[in-house]
Amino acid sequence: MDEKTPILPPPAVSNCQCRCRSDNKKKRVFKRIALFLIGLLALHAFSHRFQSFRSDWDDGVVSAQCYNGEAPIQWEGKTSYDVDPAKFPNLSVVQNGSVTGGFVKTFTQSDDDLAHINVNIHFSEPYLQDQINIIIDDSENGYNFTVETPKHLRRECINVEITIALPNSAQFNKLAISTINSKIELLDDITTEESISLQTINGSIHAEYVKTNELVVNTVNGGITIEKADAHTVVFHSVNGAIHANVDAEKISAKTINGSIHLDNIGDGTAAAINTETVNGSTHVSAPKNFEGAFSLKTVYGKPNVFSQSKSDKLHIEKARRNAMEGYYGSPVEDSYISSETRMGSITMKFE
Description:
The protein has 352 residues and is mainly beta.
């Protein structure tokens, strides 16, 4: 600062300016307090609503009724139906719409020549009584039995249980079962002339013994277990689930994405066309007793392994790499082969 420049006193602040600054400061503090209180009220309201929903869930509105099978209201419609295989050669049982649980069980315990279908339906809300129907479409080609439920459920619960008692003295040409959020079980010995088709979403499929010409089994989010199957053609398909089957068939296809495959061929045929595919899972395949033909094993992150229990001289390995093997067993036979592929998992192939 220059010595000649006079030093002036600071400007005077009036009482009015002091009061204005003080008032503005108070307003800012009040605004912050108000916003804080509004936030607390909003948080309290959300917490109360969440606790109310959680309480409803825990008290059984969803949990007990949907997942413990305690939906309290029973459907009042007709629940028993008789089907004559001599009149209707094909039987189709379908659950169409949304359900929260259930099953379809098929067995051979009918003492007469008829098949008996029984339905047990329970739900959580009274207004669902009029939204559930059973539709029968019968013609000379077949008997189509359909349980219709609402397409969409929010917090409602519907449980559908279907039992099919097949006659011991008669057979259908075709049997088809399709459902959602339910498991499918075939108990005893189930036999048809032409085909058996089983399909579900979010449910497992289990069969004790089936005999037919063509067996098709499909599921999403569920495993497939076939204790014994006797057929010409067998198709297994799952998305999230393992496949375990003992099969006597000439053509076999087993595919899944997330799950292992264990396929035992209990037949004694010479020629067979067998194909297995999975992405995340190991694979075990045993060839038919008298099989002859080519084989191929391919994996990305895993180890292939081929061996013969008692006839190693018939095992011919033509190509062997860290993650792949090719060759033939016995002698090359046209259209007779075993092909197995996976991405993450080992592959084991067993011959007689």
